[in-house]
Amino acid sequence: MLKQLYHFPLGSILAANGFRKLEDVIWLIGDARSGTTWIANLLNHQGNYREMFEPFHPAVPAARFLANYQYVRPGHDWPELERLSNRIFSGSFHSRRVDRGVRIKPYQGLLVKDIGANLFAYWAAAKFPQVRTVLLIRNPFAVAASKLEKSTWDWFDKPSKLLDQSDLHDDFLQPHAGLIREVSARNDPLQNYLLIWAILNSVPLRQFGPTELKTIFYEEAFQDPSGMVASVLRTQHAELDPAVAKRPSKVASQSLLTGKCPLTSWKSQFDAQQLREGRRILENFGLHRFYDERGMPDRAALNDFRSQGYADLRVKSFGPSNASPAA
Predict the structure, then answer these.
(1) Fewer CB within 10 A of the terminal residue: the chain, N end or C end?
(2) Distance (Å, rounded) from C-alpha 323 to C-alpha 298?
(3) CA 102 – CA 100 distance, rounded (Å)
(4) What CATH number does residue 181 fall under?
(5) Each residue of 208-256: pLDDT tens digit?
(6) Would 324 be classed as within a structural domain?
């Protein structure tokens, strides 16, 4: 027992034993390399939240039963995932990987950060309505450029594998199956990452109602970090120390560490043909207007997509899930 205590932070042990229930729960989700770690640092700049680092990642022993980018159909009964989710959102879950930032102090809330949960976020939100889900979106070319820069990291780069999830195929991917197979067959890393970005963002944006999901753009947060923090934390004012706002996360790309602007540095990495082919992928999912020619977000386009996608999905009937809990 003493050996176990030595390996886990005291704050995690207290939470795991239920001595303090954290009422304010924020779930920050987004694609890998979209800036979730940096955004989490900004949201928790005062250290008031206990942070959980990617607890649903298959690298976490308790989450190994999940596939990469697991989709779960709304209303599907999956007791194992529901038990894990309950432990995470109640604050009773602990793991050395997940608790890397825990300090020995009382917390006012819980901040869960994930890069692989987009496709079951709506399922979880229905099961745990007390959780405030926040979706972070970053320019897909910037995301792809960052993954390519960190090429030795273990990124999921097989979009055709997502077609193997029958519920995901039937509910969302069937109209795009030809494109997914075509792009996957080319095995072009840039196009694979753009396609994965499109899938991971289009699904929750279509599932959640316009008022059910908080969405933030990385680019807007970069330009106005204080405004982003105030919006997510629901405070009138959240003035950040400029040094805090400019501090790169521990997993920042080398281009950011060398002083390049994260909003534009990706532009020099791709030629005109690569940009055209990439935009064709985004257009297939209706996401091509999210960013303008300067690479900056268009919130009106996002809102239009959400409103139309949500309306279209309401008239679609979902049958019983074809997935087994062990899949």
Answers:
(1) N
(2) 36
(3) 6
(4) 3.40.50.300
(5) 998 899 999 999 999 999 999 999 998 766 676 666 666 665 555 555 5
(6) no
